[in-house]
Amino acid sequence: MAKVDVHVCNKKTIESLIKAGAFDSLGHSRKGLMNIYLEAIDSVMETKRAESIGQFDLFGGANLATPSAVSGVELQIDETEWEKALLLSYEREMLGLYVSDHPLLGVEHVLKSATDITISQIFDDVVGHEQTVTIAGLITSVQRKVSRQGQSWAIVTIEDLEGAIDVRFFSSTYQQHALNLIEDRIVVVRGRIDKREETPQVTAIDLSMPDINQAPIGPFIIRLEAERCTPPIVDRMKEILRSHPGTREVHLKIEGGAKNTILRLDDGLKVTASPSLSADLKSILGPDCLV
Fold first, then answer.
1. What span, in angstroms and rounded, lies between the C-alpha atoms of 289 and 291?
2. Cβ distance 220 to 271 under 8 Å?
3. 182 with 142, same domain?
4. Can you tell me the distance from the alpha carbon of 255 to that of 157, in angstroms, rounded to the nearest whole number?
5. Is position 248 within any domain?
6. Cβ contacts of residue 129 below 8 Å, gap of 6+?
7. What is the DSSP letter of 155?
8. Which of 33, 80, 105, 223 has its CA 20 to 30 A from that of 71?
């Protein structure tokens, strides 16, 4: 991680870097850093002004080795973090993409049950012009427009975990769903494919919001490669499961070797399935660890 000199960065730049995660290596929450960065910059600038007129503190640098100290001033940093949705929205606002996580991780089962096709499949030749499909994903951009006839409409970019596509909401459909066309909202769209241009688009027919809190039926199945089934990995996985207690059984599917093995974990490791649980597991076991 590159070291950023706060002496040459203005306050807006520091704020943007915090939101983007540039200071994550310091070990503090982004929310906590956002709450104290103005105080930190002001303390540095005060010291610089004093030095410029020849006022030096003999012990001014004594505390700079501590991670929360700036110019000898000890700063109390709140270690609570923003909610996942807000943290990721700031990340995408600053960088144009999600880096540390994705809002759709953990709700794949909801999207799959609500759709008949992924966005990437629309670009395949087997999917034809004017075919009616149902897709689901995250709204990442909304361009509101007015036609020559004075009617409002919009081009909405929807992204799933495999791709993104522009969906056009013409006058009647736009009027019906305009209030739900909001960035970072997860939606299900039924529409008609338009392949007359080089890049396919979808013309919306209907829009709805899926229940992303609906629980899947059956055991919660974790996939783990045999060679990765080591004590540190297993211990970390158990910590994550215990932090999401619930009533759903957890099965561990160990893949590799002569055959696959499915283990039912004890009742003390039953969980409540949630996007945060899925994201936590994927962070240590990989994106394909859930069945």
1. 7
2. yes
3. yes
4. 37
5. yes
6. 193, 194, 195, 196
7. E
8. 80
Residues 113 and 193 in one domain: yes
Q: What predicted TM-score, i.e. pTM, was given to this entire model?
A: 0.56
Are 183 and 139 a contacting pair, CB within 8 Å?
yes
pLDDT at 174: 96
Q: What are the mean pLDDT values of the chain's consecutive 10-residue runs (291 residues total)?
A: 48 85 84 85 73 58 45 70 80 78 76 89 89 94 94 95 93 95 93 93 95 72 88 90 86 81 87 81 87 74
Question: Final residue of a domain: which of 179, 208, 237?
Answer: 208
Classify residue 269 by its DSSP letter. G
Mark residue 238 as left, alpha or beta (left: phi above 0; alpha: psi -120 to 50; beta: remaining): alpha
Could you tell me the residue range of the domain that residue 193 belongs to? 108-208
- 100 assigned to some structural domain: no
Q: How far is CA 243 from CA 88, 225, 270, 271, in A?
A: 22, 23, 10, 8
* Distance (Å, whole) CA 37 – CA 30: 10
